[in-house]
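Can't attach files on this board, so I'm pasting raw text. These are the components:
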Amino acid sequence: MARVITVAAAQLGPVPRDASRGTVVARMVALMEQAAQVRAALVVFPELALTSFFPRWAIDDDSVLNGFFESSMPSRETQPLFATARRLQLGVCFGYAELARQAGSLRRFNSSALVGPDGSLIGHYRKVHLPGDREPQPGFEHQHLEKRYFETGDLGFPVWRAFGGVVGMLICNDRRWPEAWRVLGLQAVELVLIGYNTPMRNPEAPEHDRLVAFQHSLVLQSGCYQNGTWAVAVGKAGIEEGQAMLPDSMVVAPSGEIVARATTSGDELVVAEIDLDATRSYKTTIFDFGAHRVPQAYRMIIERTGAEPPEAGT
Ligand code: CDV
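---
Top answer:
Structure tokens for the assembled complex are below.
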């Protein structure tokens, strides 16, 4: 039996540094309205959707830095996203910078929220693979200071039963790591939601610059194929504060095929009708993990090299 749903990747164009939350949330609500018109079940927004991609700047003043973070979710400013989800009966996933108060101390994470069509929070994920540096790098036109501003996510790679299937989230750099996909795959994930902010230029390795779009689709297509899952990958695109960011938001099938793709570098809704049952023909044949995976062989290598295996379900 087919389990067909319509999903929408809501690509955002640039968000200026001084953009208010209200302005950005209004742009997001407009895209949610468009998604409802095509009867989408779920709309997915980029990593750190609510603000400019602030890790490009070295910010020393905590009160300035805190302006990019959300200390509650929902908050007064993000409440319209939850209310619109409920009004339109539409699921929504979006990235945000999370300021958590835990045991009397402040913790910062690069997070994403998954909201159901009733406007309630289904789940929450904290980015594990943080690229870039702690300290500003001399001579770099743009910094990438995620290690300075965020802690490594401490929630593992959870999945949720939602939208008729098994849903997981990754955030940007996570998509380049096969372990992240595989831990979701081991939990029978059927739909992976991925927001990203990918600069078109990497000052650390300029020789990679011509391959940015290729390597983006390469990891999405292989991640989907090797785990028999759909993915919706959504970027913050265009020239943001003088930095070119990768557009190319897309929906990828368990076959590894790209079924829908952005054509602009601005706010754009990329829509696809997907059958969650299409995951079956991969999960029960070539990637039937029970039949064909060989964990004991991997364990042997891991023991010899000292590499730590990811733990399923953590
Ligand atoms: N926001 C990111 O995680 N960006 C990284 C860049 C820095 C390589 C990415 O993987 O797209």
